[in-house]
Amino acid sequence: xxxxxxxxxxxxxxxxxxxxxxxxxxxxxxxxxxxxxxxxxxxxxxxxxxxxxxxxxxxxxxxxxxxxxxxxxxxxxxxxxxxxxxxxxxxxxxxxxxxxxxxxxxxxxxxxxxxxxxxxxxxxxxxxxxxxxxxxxxxxxxxxxxxxxxxxxxxxxxxxxxxxxxxxxxxxxxxxxxxxxxxxxxxxxxxxxxxxxxxxxxxxxxxxxxxxxxxxxxxxxxxxxxxxxxxxxxxxxxxxxxxxxxxxxxxxxxxxxxxxxxxxxxxxxxx
Length: 271
Description:
With about 270 residues, the protein is mostly beta strands. It has 1 helix and 12 strands; from the N terminus they run αββββββββββββ. It has one helix at about 1-40; strands spanning about 45-60, 75-90, 95-120, 125-145, 150, 155-180, 185-200, 210, 220-230, 235-245, 250, 255-270.
């Protein structure tokens, strides 16, 4: 019995040693793997393009209620394209934390149309007009992102950051047409068109959107963004929400201002 107990004790001791060696071996492999992964946190570049929106939201009942432009809306959404370049810089080799810096070019537009028709005994009258708002902007985003990569090559990278925005172009391209047809069939047509800049007032230029003595739109804005990138190896799919300081604020009516903000959906390539 005593020999049998000693044999069991020896077997248990041997098993514990073997188990410890296995655990030690596993831990050493995990450590090695961690070291390998840590040294793979390399810098990267990304180019991407896609669709974007830019919503103009007013604190008053109407958006840009100046001159003849009157949408009777508190907000309108411009739609367009989004082009991006980002440089991802690894901040540490302990985990995949990156700083992203780059450039973003967006062009968004919105078209408004209306008409008026009147038919009388001696004439037929038709008036139509349209406005197309155009907004071209260049932004410099600065993001912090955490890129978690799975073993099969897929990755997810949520991000948040700030940006500085320069509005390169903001205008209203308008067209107006009036047609009168008398009872004899004679047709009289009048047409006019032009472009009004949001960065000018009448005292500066005739082709200005704002009246004399009224503050114009702002060239520079400051804002932020949050979003997520999903990808597989070199390919990237991105979603982001952007928000900005007011593009317009009327100093004499502090409560009246127009803010911009929107979303983007992009596809890109990492290299």
